[in-house]
Each structure stands twice: as C-alpha cells, then as structure tokens.
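Re: duplicated header lines in exported structure tokens

Our pipeline writes sequence and tokens for each protein into one text file. With two proteins the header for the second block appears twice in some exports. Here is an export where it did not happen, for reference. First protein block:
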Amino acid sequence: MKVVAITGEKQCALVDKPDPKAGANIVVVKITITPMCTEFKAYKNGSKSESLGHEAAGEVVEVAQPCKVKKGDRVVVMPLDACGVCPLCLDGEYIHCQRGVDVLKITGSAAGRATYAQFLVKNDWQLLPIPDGMSYEHASMACCGLGPTFGAMQLMRVDAFDTLLITGLGPVGLGGVINGVYRGARVIGVESQPYRAKLAKELGAAEVVDPNDKDALAKIKALTKGLGVDKAVDCSGVPQAQRLMIDALRRKGHGSFVGEGGELTIKGSDDMIRKGITLHGAWHWNLADTPQMMQVITKSSRLLDKVITHRFPMSKVKDAWELQLTGNCGKVLLRPWE
C-alpha cells in the first residue's frame, strides 16, 4: 500500500508499505477519505514520520473472525487504539484509555496505524457504522471536524438559550460553529484570519471578533449586554485566546479547552471562586453519543458542504499541506486511492 511520509522540512513522499492483516477482533479498513488535521505542522518543521493521521472513513475489507463488523461495512474510524476493557473504555470515554493495544503486534502487520495511507487496522468496536445515504465525506466529520467541539458542547449542555463563544476558527473551530448553530445557540467567533472569519459567518456565526483588536473583550461584552457569554470553547490552543475565553465568560459560565496549547495562568480566586466558572477539558466525545453525532451530521449536510473546502488526491498531499499553511481553507480531505 501507499503511505505518506515526511522526509524533511517541507518535503514529503509516497512510500510503499506491506498491506496490513486482520487478526483477532482487529480488522482491515480500506480508507476512502482522510480528513487532514494538524499534520501540516510536522511537514513545515520537517519532523520525519511514516505514520501520519488519526481521522478516516472507509470500508471493511478483511476480518479474521466473526466480530462487530463484516466485510463491506462502511465505517468511520475513531482515533487511537484503546484497550476496550478498562472502566474508561466501558464508559464510552475510550479516548482517555491509559492501556491501549498494539494492533500491529496482534495482527503481525508491519504497518497500518496511519490514516495518510490506503489501508489501516483497527479494533472492531472503534469503527462506527455509516448510516445509509450518508456520504463518506460527511461521515468523516465525526472525527476532528465535528468531534472535539461536539464533545465539549455535550459536556456543557449548550442549547438555544446560550450565547456561545468560539476562540480560534480553524477547521475544528469552524466545526464548532456548525455544532453551536445546530443546537440553536447564538455563536460569536474569535478569529483574525479573514478567510476563516468570513467562512464562520457563512456557517451561521452571528459575529466574529478580531483577537488582535485591543477592544476585543469589550466588544464581546457589549454583544452580551455587559454580562459575558454563557458557554465558550477554545479551539486555538493559544494562551492569549484561552485567557480571552475565560475573561469573556459570564459569572457561573462554562468553558471548554479543545485546542492543544502551551501554559495558561488560571486565577484560583478571581476566575474560579469569585466568578464561579466551570472549566472542562474536551479531547473527543463519548461513544454512547453516536446516535446524536450522526443526527448532527445528517441535519447539517448543507453546512458540511461549506466547511469542507478542498479535496486532494493523496499523491498531491504536498499541495494540500501548502494550502493549509496559508489558512485559506476550512476542512481539507485526502483521497488515498487517487
């Protein structure tokens, strides 16, 4: 099979790897769509790797024994390789599993964990069935396109009574706009990149504030009659934006951290005690909420067609990464068999 490799600073290639094999309850999936996440940062920095990506949708093509899926099933591939038996996994919170499994060792495969590839191996229970009539492209948004902010909004119980702030409108934050709009919330975005600020409004954001504006906090407060927002999600991972999120929350408001980032100072007294806010960390979403996730995807198809802005054959991955570096895109998809 063909696999994408980063070979140096802004250098990449397609390399040949042995096709993976099924074993036990670990099956082989032929990848149809690979949503691109933050791998472009490794491409920019020259962090060499032949195991890239954590999002995919495709078709089960090999099973070793009867299990939860069968050949021909269309599935969304959930990230990581969790154990499936610890309390976190059994509770649907597999993303926080501390045990994990070595799928390559179990199947005897030399490769198969990457999603920038034509095939992968995965636990059967980490493959979500794609409903009839749903495209691979839309289904793949159950990973990082909609997933992290969906999980955050489930935790915070975002609804139509809320004004929701989203700081950082990259692909994950734009997915957050879709999730917020679906729930009926009034969405305020924070973004300096013009292309993405414009796209956020097309997706339904009521306002987008520039974080470089010295009056950004005052403008957010003015949009909420001076009280602050009810709920907020940071998708930037930038400490300044995370601080803005906290400062923009109303008293007793809820905020979630989705974007990976650096150190942030949280004030135990002024933020947590006197303001009474609740802060969450949201990495992914609980698998028990799969029906709700599929409902969001089904009923947001028009917006998903907007947020998916570009598609590339895997042979043109370099062009896709160069585009991502400009920021002039929403969610970008790779097609491994083109």
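Second protein block, exported in the same file:
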Amino acid sequence: MLRAMFRGLIAHRLRLAMTALAIALGVGFMSGSFVFTSTLTHSLDSLISQAGMGTDVVVQHSSPAGGFGAGSGAPQPIPASILGRIRRVPDVAAADGGITGHAQLLGRGGKALPGQFTVATSWPADAAFQATYTRRAGRPPAGPGQVMIDRASARAGHFAVGDTIKVLIGGQARTFTISGSTGYGSADSFAGGSLAMFSLSTAQQLFGQAGSYDSIEVKAAAGVSAQQLRDEVARILPPGITALTAVTAAAAQTGQLNGQLSILTKFFLVFAGVALFVGAFVIWNTFSIMIGQRTRELALLRALGAGRQQVFRSVLAESAAVGIVAALAGVGLGIALSKGLVVLLSGFGLSLPVTGLVVPPGPLALAAGTGLAITLIAAAAPAYRATRVAPVQALRDAVPSPAGFSAQRLTAGLAVTVVGVAAVLAGLLTGASLVLTGAGALLAFIGITVLGPLTARPLAYVIGFPLTRLPGRTGVLARGNTMRDPKRTSATAAALMIGLALIVAAAVMVDSSRTMLDRQIAVASKTSFYVQATSADIGLTPHLAGVLAAQPGVRAVTEVRATDATVAGAAHKNVDGVDPATIGSFTDLGMKTGTVSALHSGALLVTQAAAAGHGWQLGDKVRIQFGSFGVSALRIGGIFANVGPLSDYLVSNATFTADTGRRLDSVDLVRAAPAARGPIQRTLAGYPGAQLMDEATFARSRGAVLANLLNLITAMLVLAIIIALLGIVNTLALSVVERTRELGLMRAIGMRRGQLAQLVAAESVIIAVIGAVLGSALGLAFGAALAEAFTRSQQATVSIPVTQIAAYIVVTALAGVLAAIAPARRAARLNVLEAIAAE
C-alpha cells in the first residue's frame, strides 16, 4: 500500500502540486503575517532602546500615555522650572528637557521627501544624551533659522550643509539653513522616517511650548543606579508629574506598541484564514475527483486484499504528503511575503518603521501545522469515500454518476444557511461579539455550498446560454458538461464564491458609508470652501484662518480642530473643536435640546444618535480620554441632529486646546463668493500642507479612508481569488484526463484543435461566472446587512455599487479564461488515436 501511495503521488504529481500551491499560499499569508509583526515589533523595540541611550530616568506627566485608541492629544507639558529642581538633585549627572512635534521635510521642488514620516525634535544640549545621533556632519542647530536633518534625507534631497530647506510646520512651509546632518543609531534615518532637529528655544517657539517641555531625560552620576536616582527625583516632583527608569518607560512603550500590533496581526490572520478556507475547498474537490477517477484502481486493491482502513490511510497519507510539502513551501513563501506586506501597507498610506528580518520559529510552526491540519481535514471525506469502493467496481469504467435532486441536501443546506444568517444578524443587530458574526458567516458559506449542486445545473443552463452561439456547438457542449456533474461544478465555483462574496460585501459597506457621509454634508453644510490639512498630524497653523479671512470675496472663516479620543470607554471616536460664536453660520446642526452657546462654558455637544445609543440626556457627564492629558468629564450642553462636516462630539476650541494640548486646526471652513477661489488658491501657495476643496471634493476626501480600506481588503482577498482559480485549473485539468476518450472521439468526427480549446475555455467561464454570481448575491446580502447595522446610528443607508459589482463579474469571467489556458492547450494537443484507445 505504501508503494501504491507513492506511485499515485508520482502519477498525479502535477495536479497535486497545484493543490499544494493552494495551501502553500494560505500558509504563506499566515506565516508572512507572523514574520511581519515579529519584525516590526523587533524594529520598534530597537528604536525605543536607541531613543533611551544614555538616559537612566525619564520624567513625564503622570496621566496615561496617549496611544492608539486612547487619543491623539499632544504630550502634556512639564513646566521648565521642574528641570532646575532636577539638576539640583545630588546624584544627577545631567538633565535635559526636550520637545517633539510633527513636521515634513520638503525637497527642492516643494514635494515631500520620501521619508515615511518626519519627527521634529529639539537637539539635546548635554553630550550625555547625544550618543544616539551618530556620524554627524556639520554642527548642531544653534539659532532660530537652523535645522539638522538625517543623513538619508540629505542624500534623497541632494542637500549639503549650508543649503536651505523648506520644512512644513502647521501646514506652512518655513525656510531653514541646514546646519548639519546626522545618523540615528546604526542607521542613516529614524526607522525609515526623517528627522528635523531644532535648537530647544526654536522647537519651543515652533510648537507652542514656550517655558515647558514634553519630557525630561536624566542621567545618573557614577555609581548611582537608575532605580536609586528615580526615587530621589520622584521625591522633588510635584503631583501630576512622575519619574520612571528608562527601562520601565521603554517597557511601557513596548507593551503599548505590542497591543497595537496585535490588532494588525489579527487583521492579517483573518485574511490568511479566508485563504486557507478557500484552499480547503480546492483540496476537497481535487481529491474527490481523483478518487472518482481511481475507482477501478482502488477496487483492484480491494480485490487483492486491501482493507478499508488501508485504503483510507493510503489516501490520507497522500494528502499528508501534499500538506507537508505545502506547509514547508508556505513558510518559505511567507518569509518573502512579509516584505511584500510592508510595501502593500505603504501603498495604502500606512508606513511603518521596519528594519531587518525576524523569523519566529514558534508562530511559523503554528502556521505550518495549521496548513497540514486543514489539508488532512479537507481530504478526510474523499478518503472515507474511497473506502466505500467495492471490489466489483474494478470491472466498471470510472465515470461521474449523474446527481439527481436530493431532499436531504436541500434540508441540510437550508438549515445550516438559516442558522448562519441568524447568527450574522444577531451579531450585527444586538452588538454581540465579532466571533458570533464570523461564525455565522462561515455557516452561511457552508450552507450555500451544500445547496450548490441543486443550483449549479439551472445556473449553468442560464449562464451558458450566451455561449451556445459559439461556432461548432462548442458552447452547447460546454454547457452540457458543466450541467452533467453539478457537484463538481458547484464545488469548484464555491471557492471563487467565498472570495468574491467578501469583496462585494466590503464594496457595499464602503459605498453605503460614503453615500451617508455625502448626504450628511449636503444636508447641513452652509460652507463655500474647505481648506483642509493634507496631514492630520501636521495640521494647519491658526494664523492661516486670519490670512484667509483677509482675502477679497471672503465673508467669514471659522476654525475646526479634530482629535481621536476614547469616549465613554469606546475608542477611536472623533472629537471636534469649534468656535461656538460662528459655527452655526457654516453648518446647520439642527439642535434638538440645549444650545450651541453652552460650548462657551466648557460643555459638550453630542449627536442625537450618540445620545440615544448611550442613553444620555441634557446635563449628563461624559468621560473622554484625550491622550496623555488624561480624562475629562464634560457636561452635555446640547444634543444636535445634523453631523454635516463635523463629528458626533463637539467642544469649543478653547476647551479642545485645554484638554488636548493641540493648537492646530484640521480644516478651516470658508464662506465666500465663487470669485474668491482664485485669491484663496494663490494664498495657499505658501501653505503646501493645506488644500482647497469645494463641497463635493471635501465629501470625497472624507470617504478617501474608506476607499483605501476597500482597496486594501480587495488586495488581501486577491490571494483567495488566485487560490480559487487554481481550483478551476485543477478541475478542468482532471476533467480533460477523465474525458480523454470522449475528446478523442470529438476530434475524430471533425472537431478542430481550436474548437476543443474553446470548449474547455467555455466550461471555465461558466464555472467562474457561477462563482461570481453566487458570490455577488451572497456579498450583496451580507454587505446590505453590514451597511444597515453600521449606518443605523447616523442615517441608515444601503447603497449598491452596481457598476463596480458588474466589473467584478466581468473580471472574474476573464480570469476564468486565463485559468483555462493550460487545460485547454492540453486538450488541444491530445493524440486522436491514443485518446480513442484510452480507457
């Protein structure tokens, strides 16, 4: 039996190689995710350790550190007087205060240099804290017009010491003289980003931190431990300011970053799971067809004395061999794929400081084991079917038996589908865990797959009808072949259905969200133009609003500031700062209770939808965490209906600045005559970080993040589509082998090679379009449910991107043609006499 197994592997090596590739791609995605996140974690750990080089104690505000989901407020400042106290501590060898902000280095043409991001910081005055900055040329910045940049940016922009460079700060381009260049640790840049270093006084002036620091670094005297120094420094600090050892501070930052990275890992693993799920269909279908074609071979083994368990173990051993090869190949592929993930995320605006390559053995073993397990599970059903082959079947030809209507299949399929849909709706409508929603979607996919053979024949008949017009009746024959074995047709199409269903669902969800945003702005806005920051981190200087207001034709300008915060325990909520005296002239808030003027006293305005979702009423207090500024308890002073160009939560700009430390605008709303566009546009020439938009353009920009998300999801799911197409290639190739004699007879009675290739291609198109139609229908249903659930709190909106979905179906049909190339060429090359003589 062992020799028979190896002969079977060799005899079907090409088909099994294609099957192995399907699993290898899924394992590759999973292992690539593990390598990518491990590499990123290591890179960030190294970056944090380099940043703390030469530092023993870090003094910072004691409020929770701002991070992903906690809020994007600036670091809470530390009064400069604290630095003097620290320097007087006996065991302090050196202490320096520092400022950090956001900027962007501009090249000679006014475009941003290719660094992934730019960190603006103050140059440490004491030599003890300068060890991180290596291979310096020139000298540190000393005056208000000087800047030191990283070596990589200097090379990229062809800048030398003494040249002038423009630095984007608050949306405005400011000119500085390059006093020097520096490396960072062992690299020429700051983890792939750029550095802009100013003198301390310049940095304080540029970022509005006069008389304060973001943090203070302290170095211990010889023979004094970091813990001992921390205790001494902590005793002289006022309430609200804390001292941490550099190791503790680095560990806290590392833990926070690892928590953020776990979200990215889960995101990737979801798509890896989809790829493996689709790969399981390919394996199951391939082994099912191969078992059907080897009926006589298996029956002969049974006739020669092989037991059922021996046959079962033989088929399962074949799948294990395929799984092992696929898993090992997938791990190797994943290491290469991890670099591709960096490029992919950078293409969608998520640049990450990745250096080197870390290969984690444990997670990679888990990925390989998962691939092997899925292979064995998928092959178990065909292996069991092989044990049902009776010895007498050795006397019969191996032909697919026609499948009739099955009441049991209908009942089982409907039951599983209904349970799956119910679970999805329960997860969406009741706010249950995502696990319930995901499990429901999985069951729905399985249920539709079980029902597949009952729908494959009528779908093939309808979809294949246009192809019946092909010359030589190749289309008629192709339609008949796909209808002949509906189980095989539906199983092959099911893999494609899953990937396309997810893409269509995401497209419906995104289109619905964008439509809702467009409606909100159109209904409430009274604004003529929007001047928006190109970078949320860099923002717009408040000075720009006054400049805009002075332009001819401009009637009024109001500033809007924005931050990410945690509201009532819910992260990733936008809070906007507005001018209470003017905001009503730019957008119709539709106040339900309370007044806009309540903002003057530090109150909070919330939307009617947010209030209803939390059960809030006028006068209630809401806890909001603004980054390192900690938690503020704000009283609800009004409830409004129309979001317009704003967010669900509004405070006054004064409250916003006090609670977040941010003094930059996100967008300036402008009421002006149409003729004012020209003067405004000319004014913005000196502010390359600002962009002028009308209402339609601004609405599109609000949906740009959603569009990027859809593109990213589609790019991730392309892997599942590729695996599904491999399944079509496998099915067609095995079908050609199975129908060798039939194809030979067709050639003998006059069918040309081109017509035979056309026949196989037509079958592929029918199968692909069946998968696309089922996937689109399923995706529309799930997408509509998702859209309704996620937009219900604002304005329930379901929008179907008809053109986009039609394009998906057309592209899928074309992909079916590509998948048929190899099997079609094989069919066309059959020797007529040998094919007729084949059994």
